[in-house]
UniProtKB/TrEMBL annotation:
Gene Ontology MF annotations: oxidoreductase activity
CDD domains noted in UniProt: 17beta-HSD-like_SDR_c
Protein name per its UniProtKB record: Uncharacterized protein
Domain of life: Eukaryota
Family: Belongs to the short-chain dehydrogenases/reductases (SDR) family.
UniProt cross-references to Pfam families, sorted A to Z: adh_short (PF00106)
Signal sequence segment: none
Matching PANTHER family: SHORT CHAIN DEHYDROGENASE, SHORT-CHAIN DEHYDROGENASE_REDUCTASE FAMILY PROTEIN
Keyword line: Oxidoreductase
InterPro entries linked: NAD(P)-bd_dom_sf, SDR_fam, SDR_oxidoreductase
Amino acid sequence: MAPLVWLITGCSSGLGQEFVKQILARGDKVIATARRLESIESLQNDGASTLRLDVTDEPEVINKAISEAIGIYGGIDVLVNNAGFIVQGAVEELSQDQLWAEFNTNFFGTVKVTQAVLPHFRQRRAGALVFVGSLSGWIGHPYVAAYAASKFAVEGMAESIKAETEGFGIRTLLVEPGRFRTNLLTLGNLTVTEPKISDYKEAASSMIQGLAKEDRAQPGNPVKLISVVLDFVRNEGVAEGRPPVFRLPLGTDCYEEVKKKCEETLENLEALKDITTSCDF
Ligand SMILES: NC(=O)c1ccc[n+]([C@@H]2O[C@H](COP(=O)([O-])OP(=O)(O)OC[C@H]3O[C@@H](n4cnc5c(N)ncnc54)[C@H](OP(=O)(O)O)[C@@H]3O)[C@@H](O)[C@H]2O)c1
């Protein structure tokens, strides 16, 4: 297999950084991007090309960065939309600015980078789009509604893009991690909303404490997660001999929670079938 060229967003830490390390280890080429170039200097020393890319920039700035990226190796084979963060807080206490910031990075950033890469993929009639979704794209846990909503939005967009572009030879992979040990819950990355409304105080405070306890103690191993994702993109390892996959849920917590939701959804659908199907002309 000829080496693939990957472009990853949000490579300063966590899954992004691990993607870069394992891609290089498999002999592929990678353009590691981050909003602060100095945060990915060490990846350059490891053999990655680096580029500044803040996914909240204007589309023109992002398009320019993607053109520059294409010029580095003469093309891009795989785009990984990885950049993201969590805004914590009860819906009633979230400001418009917080909601916008969450969607600006997790959803609109993902859309803008994907839109910038798609013409290149269509022209080549090839390419792989990888979206780092989440268990939170399936389940709206309390006090992380902004994050869940942004990841639900990514799920919907990824499903549509898959249907729109698979005829052009473009593959879409939606990775859905449960809780994995990265810096996602580290204060500073995680934006916490101190509860002011007394009704929410107790539950929201204990949720914040829970997140702090879970920071760097999550059950999921990012090294294993990235290895599986690389296998599925490169059709090797654990993916070998399996039919193509669109949704890739990862983590035991993800398996259990998604299964429960699917079962409840089917139960609800069947329980209401007579009513659901009674509203047609
Ligand atoms: N870890 C988990 O349990 C888990 C579960 C489900 C989904 N995910 C998803 O996995 C992805 C990676 O997160 P992680 O777990 O690796 O957490 P992380 O260690 O906090 O990494 C997040 C990365 O996103 C970058 N980023 C944030 N805003 C950005 C922007 N505007 N432009 C470019 N980069 C930006 C951060 O860069 P800076 O250093 O500049 O802030 C950082 O490199 C996220 O989309 C997250 O939602 C993670």
